[in-house]
Amino acid sequence: MTAPTANTPMVNLTIEGRQVSVPAGTSILEAAKTVGVLIPHYCYHPGLPVAGVCRMCLVDVEKAPKLAPACATSVAEGQVVNVHAEKAREARKGVLEMLLINHPLDCPICDQSGECELQDYTYQEGRADSRYREPKRFNPVEDFGGDVMYVPNRCILCTRCVRFMDDIAHDAVLNVSERGDRAYIGKFEGKDLTHPWAGNVVDLCPVGALLSKDFLNKARSWELDRTASVCNGCSQGCNMIVETRDNVVVRLRPRPNNQVNDFYLCDYGRLNYRWMNRGDRIEAPTVTSASGQRAADWDVALSSAAAALKGKRVFVLASPSLSNEALHFLSRIVKVAGGKGAFRMPTGPEAPLPGVEDLALRADRAANGRGAELMGFERTDQPLAGLSQGDAVIVVDHDLTPDDAASLSHASAVVLVSTFMPAALARADVMLPIANYVEEEGTFTNLRGHVQRFLQARAAPGMARPSWYVLADLCNALGDRQDAMTAAQAFAALAAAQPAFAGMSYDGLGLRGKTIAGATAGQASLEVAT
Amino acid sequence: MGFPFTPHPRETTVLSKHFGDAEARTLDGWKARGGYRALEQALGMDPLAIQAVVKDSGLRGRGGAGFPTGLKWSFMKLGDGKPHYLCCNADESEPGTFKDREIMRWTPHALIEGCAIAAHAIGAETAYIYIRGEFTEPLDVMERACEEARRAGVIGKNAMGSGKRVDVWVHKGAGAYICGEETALMNSLEGKRGNPRIKPPFPAAAGLFGMPTTINNVETLAAVPPILVNGGEWYKKMSRPDNPKSTGTKLWSVCGNVMRPGNYEVEMGFPFKEFLYDLCGGPPKGRKFKAVIPGGSSVPIITMEEADRALMDYEGMVAVGTMLGSAGCIVMDDAQSIPRQVARLARFYAHESCAQCTQCREGTAWTTKILERMVAGDGTAEDFDTLMSLAEDMTGKTICVLSDSCAAPVVSGLQKFRGEFEALITRRTVHTVPAIVA
Amino acid sequence: MSHGPSATGGSAISTAPNGHSSEPYVPVFTGETKARLDALLERYPTKMAALLPALWMVQEARGWVSPEAMAETGQVLGLTAAYVKGVVTFYTMYHQHPVGKHFVQVCTTTPCHVCGAEDVVKAFLKHTGCGELGVTSADGRYTVIEVECLGACGFATPVMVNSDFIESVTPEKVPELLKQYG
Fold it and tell me: For position C169, what pLDDT does the model report?
């Protein structure tokens, strides 16, 4: 189906008694979604070419001689679709029974349990028992390489994984091998699922046939708490869900957003979560005086920090993965005190997902380089260049090279606002513990200027506070009045002060984000040029 | 003729006239027998005029579906600027059917001529003849005939000096029944797994290589040259007076428990009883006919009572609850166990399922397992209901009709020969091992 | 291809050795074979369309389609090895393992079944010394398999030995027939 344009005529039909009006060429399945009717399906996925093979989405279309596969049937004017007609339900019941005849029914030891579409639809409309009395087919578990394990006995051959690798990843390492009921998902010996985006086949698999080796036997899906977030592994800003069990992040999964990442998350991003749970955190504010480093309460620590900074030129070394809000308050400090803000950008090889326009694991391996630049921070390999005697430095969640540490020795004061203690740091006059980004709310700006919210997925350790909250307090302690009791207030302060964000509101961003005005135009012309 | 036997006087030999005549295989021999006159004529005609003659003849597809050939050709949008393709379906693999094999073995030029005419009629410059890999001799004969025709300029970039390009290529299959399904054949020709495609789009809109394509059976295409030479009216006359919907002659492959198995060419509407007893010589000595599958294994089984009143055309077979299909007639005598044969058929379909649709992949295998268990003496009364319910799930719900084809003989077998299945169950052995309950 | 006691017999995932030898792989598509493939490519608008013919060339040259040959064929036609494997395993005529010098296929589908094809199979298993379907005889000369409908139902039972198509085989004719295939 080609994407509808403004000129595509609308088609009117009735689905489950509801009036539906959708662009011509829309499938019945997608049309039904628009009025809140979910037609059961397995092989269909909106991001993949239609296969029409599972036959689970059969629906009754009045006056049609046969049941229609809703995924592969386009809407027609005046159509009356009965999803729950007796014969459609019977047909789907038959499909469900057949999908289970060779299935090991091993839900108690299956990772997919609880988020398995085979379970869901069987509960919803399957048979209570099975009439199958013959021996079951058996095939051994296979390691597909990468993070993927294949359990063929649970496979329903929907071919979503094969189509993803063929049509989206453009790396056809999976196939359907053999035919009839001997068929299975196969690969070629020695050619593994090592594509940087291959892990998506695990999410695409509607059943427990493709599993993440990383997540294997880690948690039952119903024990997980799920939080909408944004990946900070690179500047793409893929939308994701952070899944925690007992305040521990155990899995990251993509959250669909067709403006940014479609349905996908790369392997680098999805496996980049262990640091979120790290135990060696700074948990309490400290103040260093002649008598040594002491824990302090927040008020004392903040006023000590302000005292250390007051009247000096301030250099800010800020992580490019800080939120827009935190960077904004830091930019205030730089502006008031004079000095400069800078960051070093970690990089790695770029890895595009060719089947989706403008989607890649980006070379810039931090979430908010664009935000930092918009806020006046300089991207440089020598972030402390120009630091002179008497200047003060604030290091905000930024790791330090030995050279950085050497430069810091010239500083008159060092304030560390961080989740962790940089190994190379010799001294800090004040240390202020902050939450990492999955422990707080905030926004990132991706490389195309798309501003997106992330929510709090776990509790911060000890006395750590959200970064923007701490930095707003520091502004206040320095006499620059900032109001940021909530993330929304912090964003409002940012939007009021930073021209790029003018007119945006925290609520207005929603969970899919908004693009900075003018930011995409440049990109569009760039795309045309290439 | 009832090849390999001498023709029966009641046969009407149009396509089979030269079966067994080795000289007819050569280009010169074919020309001497009137060959390529039709092509010469066709190349000078407007494609629409050719379509009109074929429409007028009433020729219907001989591969099984019986779709009117001229109408199918007319779906091709001429002059749309896209390359058009003709596919000749020579993947004859429907159990019981072996007529296309003889056409290709004995009259390869009849097929090439038919292909070239059809290609011109649908605006195609390329025709592919997809022959199943097991047909080593027909492949060889067709390859040689194509080469001969190409060398002589009968086909190629200036076919018969007409200035029109008609390439005809032979493409060898590699062992898959389902590639006889038209869209599976196209996938196979494109170098893919032979998976049937979802329709729409239909081949005339997006077929081979995504381009407008017409696909015709060997026998259909071989019938085109005589129709063009003799006119549609001539062909139309070969039919029952009361049924103008089935016209022309039809090759019937007859096999199984019959005295003279072979290929017979009769006019549409021929009485089936006379056909089986007179032309085919009746049952083997001392035996009686018991059942017939008249149109290839995918059509319902009929009893002899039904067969005796059947007329051999599309409508005549439907009237007795079966179909003409590919006219592959499998005859079974009273020594055969229907459950055993139905189980064997089911196994065939389970083996050949492409694995795409759930009902087919799982249903054909499950049906086979139940039937084989019943035949082994371990059936239960519930198996009847399960088989019928599976057959319902397997009918009309999948991309292609392979699973329907598996269900048809099961349902008709159970309905018409239920006693034989029941006998298996009443005699059944006692379970010594508890059944595995899913 | 399933030859087990049920239609679903046999494990789908093959763990059998593929007859790998330590010798380096010698490419199929060189010289004259490559020229034949190149000529063939002109018949089709896509390279992929030449996959089935190319695999036939491999089987002609090597007697079977080895994993290395799948990879090579893929490379020549711009396809991944996994894709080629998916295609190879779909079609029953490509051998995924080495077979005997003479590959015997006996049709046993319904029309032949009613004419006693099972006995023909038994005769072949006995006289070739294979004993079992799909097993190559100890002397490496024969492999016998059952095959689904060969499309010569009126000439029951048709048998293919290598590329020879033999009609109307009965159990009695088997020993004489095998003499031609030493």
Answer: 96
Whether the per-residue pLDDT at C20 is higher than 70: the answer is: no
Looking at the DSSP bridge assignments, the partners of residue A287 are: A294, A430
Query: What pLDDT, in 10s, does the model give residues A331-351?
Result: 999 999 999 999 999 999 999
Q: How confident is the model at residue A6 (pLDDT cuts 50, 70, 90)?
A: confident
In angstroms, the CA A86 to CA B395 distance is 16
Rg (C-alpha) for chain C, rounded Å, is: 18
- CB-nearest partner of C85 from A139, A171, A177: A177
Cβ-count burial of A283 within 10 angstroms (0-12 exposed, 13-18 middle, 19+ buried)? middle
pLDDT at A487: 97
Gap between the Cα atoms of B377 and B386, Å rounded = 17
CA distance A80 to chain B (A): 19
What is the pLDDT at residue B114?
98
Angular region, A169: left φ>0, alpha ψ -120 to 50, beta rest: alpha
Work out the percent of chain A whose per-residue pLDDT is above 90.
93
Q: Which residues of chain B neighbour A98 with C-beta distances below 8 Å?
A: 358-359, 361-363, 366, 393
> Scanning the structure block, which residue is given the tokens 């519930």?
B382
SS3 content of chain B, % helix, strand, coil (to 5): 45, 15, 40
Q: Does C153 touch chain B (CB under 8 A)?
A: yes
What's the confidence (pLDDT) of residue C6?
A: 36
Quick one: pLDDT at residue A386?
87
Q: Do A58 and B397 touch (CB under 8 A)?
A: yes
- Say if CB B393 and CB B410 are below 8 A apart: no
- Any CB–CB contact under 8 A between B430 and chain A? no
CB-based contact, A127 to chain B, within 8 Å: no
Nearest-CA distance A213 → chain B (Å): 28
Residue A243 near residue A225 (C-beta atoms within 8 A): yes
Choose among B350, B353, B387: nearest CA to B370: B387
Q: Residue B302 has which token pair?
A: 């009929």
Question: What's the pLDDT tens digit per position in A77-127?
Answer: 999 999 999 999 999 999 999 999 999 999 999 999 999 999 999 999 999
**How far apart (Å, rounded) are the C-alpha atoms in residues A12 and A1?**
18
- Integer Cα distance of A11 and C19 in angstroms: 59
Closest partner residue to B365 among C7, C45, C156, by Cβ? C7
| pLDDT-based confidence at residue A46 (cuts at 50, 70, 90) | very high
Average pLDDT over residues B290-308: 96
Residue B129 and residue B218: Cα distance in Å, rounded? 9
Mutation target for C interface from B208, B211, B344: give the one with most C CBs within 10 A: B344
Cα(B221)–Cα(B115) distance, integer angstroms? 6
Cβ contact B351–C152 (<8 Å): no
Nearest chain C alpha carbon to B168: C43
Between CA C100 and CA A481 the distance in angstroms is 89
Give the C-alpha separation, A201 to A174, whole Å: 10
For chain C, the maximum distance between any two Cα atoms, rounded to a whole number of angstroms, is: 50
Q: How far apart are CA A438 and CA A228, in angstroms?
A: 10
Task: Residue A20: name the closest of A84, A79, A83 by CA.
Answer: A79
User: Is C65 part of the contact surface with chain B (CB cutoff 8 Å)?
Assistant: no
- Residues of C whose CB is below 8 A from B192: 48, 51, 87
Smallest Cβ–Cβ distance between C86 and the set A142, A171, A186 belongs to A186
pLDDT tens-digit map of B6-28: 889 999 999 999 999 999 999 99
Q: Which of B101, B189, B336 sits opposite C114 (nearest CB)?
A: B336
CA–CA gap between residue B84 and residue B82 (Å, rounded): 6
Q: What subunits touch chain C, counting only 3 or more CB pairs under 8 A? A: A, B
Q: What is the pTM of this model?
A: 0.94
pLDDT of residue A208: 97
